[in-house]
User: What shape does this take?
Amino acid sequence: MTRGTQAAVGLHLAIMVAVLVPPLVVRATGTTIYLETAPVDPRALFRGDYVILGYGIGRDALTPEEGEAARETGRPIYVTVTTERPGRLVALGSERPQPRPGEACLIGRSRGDGTVDFPQIAQYFVPEGEGRLIEQQRGEDLLARVVVSATCNAVLTGLEGR
Amino acid sequence: MRRSVMRALDHWQREGLLTSRHAEELRASLDAEHADRAIRAFAAIGAVLAGLGVMLFVGSNWSTMGPVARGAVLLGTYGAVVVGAMAVERRGLPWVAEAAWLLTTLVLGANIFLLAQIFNHSLTYWPGPFWWMVGALALGLARQSAWQVALAVPLGVLALGWFGGGTGWFFDDQAEFLFSSRGLRPILPLVGVGLVSLSLLARNTARWQFASTACFGWGLALATLPLLISTAHREVVRATFSIDLTLKQGVVLGVVAAVLGAALAWGRFDSREGRPLLAGATGFFALVLVQIGDRPWMASDMATFMVYVGMIFALALTAVWVGARAQNARLVNVGLASAGVLIVIQYFGWSIQMLDRSLVFVGGGLLLLGLSVVLERKRRALLAAAGH
Assistant: This one.
């Protein structure tokens, strides 16, 4: 193996390790919050071995005009929630907030219709065959356990009953 | 191949070019190679079966494995593929080795997404394909492999399409970058121009020459396919080239313009006509984006649509001519194929309206047969004249 190939293989390994760094850092240093899941309209999006999750705090969070404007610019929406179980919406903004004790923030994106979704925690990988059952349970009875960092990045660590 | 070699040995022996002893020695070495090859074939089949068995075992136990075990399996698989590629290369099988290294890059891509999946970390947006592309380019540069670039280019287009917020963040619009007027769809031909320009610049440097063929091929494909598809109907033109001109589209077009300028100034063309063709084609692709009201100008009425179709046909024939002069077989093939496809599309588009359906299919079949004969003859004549 030439030195160039060795370097390329080393880069491959570094990329694979680097993929793990962001979620591991968030898990190790972040704050745990619990969010009510919501059905994702307009259809059940069961895809093989993972489920698609929406969240109650994002439903009708913006006016249609605000939502469309946010989607146009593509800028993230910072959502502040409490750390209660389940978390309650505190505030929305286009600037990263400084959460107070008992609060945490996470990054959302506008769909354009007033709904805010959270792509970082939108999919949950489950054992084969369990996805549809979990999708049916989405809603107030199913809480997502999420770890969020100080920079509002989130990692979904599990699903629990209320 | 073995039969051909045996026949050749017999022929040379009859012609007195080989003694019987030499011929026997050569036959014996071939038999040894044949026996060795049979053993290697069994070994290869065994390796494939073992590999399939490992994949089935992993797949059936994946859900019961913890994160550490999953990570170890994925990294171990990558390591095994690298070792296999090294072993094949040491045996002096260059093509098989390149295929094995390509497999390494494919495993890298699978691992990027599977490792992220372990922690429910979504990488189906731009970071996943972007880092996969970087890995492919790095290995391609190290091995001077065009195959790696052939994989890297579509990954780069995917990452570019998904880059930037507002679209492609959600699962039901991840294809929006391809199908939306705010995505890459209306500017795909110009993205193709960018790739062709990169290929011309790459030919100037020994280090990056390996990337030229793949960039050129993908560039031609991206430039040609949307245009050909759009000739089916005025509404298809509108669907293909309606553009909202977002900031991201503007930046992409700016970068394409810069790369094109560099290519026209410093790129290596094989003929004098290459530069005017590239510049002219780019001008046409840009013209296609001019909107009148809410639709592209060529979708306004039937007359302008026919002018548009005619211009694409002329562009295809020009590509054939330039390809012949530049001895560029790929350009000739793409030009002829585009002209042929255009004729077929127009035939079916018009005849279905004007003729009985059965006559349409009879005529269409005869047209395809005749066209294939004419185009193939023309292609061979052009390529023979060009020295291929």
Notes: Strands of chain B lie at 291-292, 295-296.
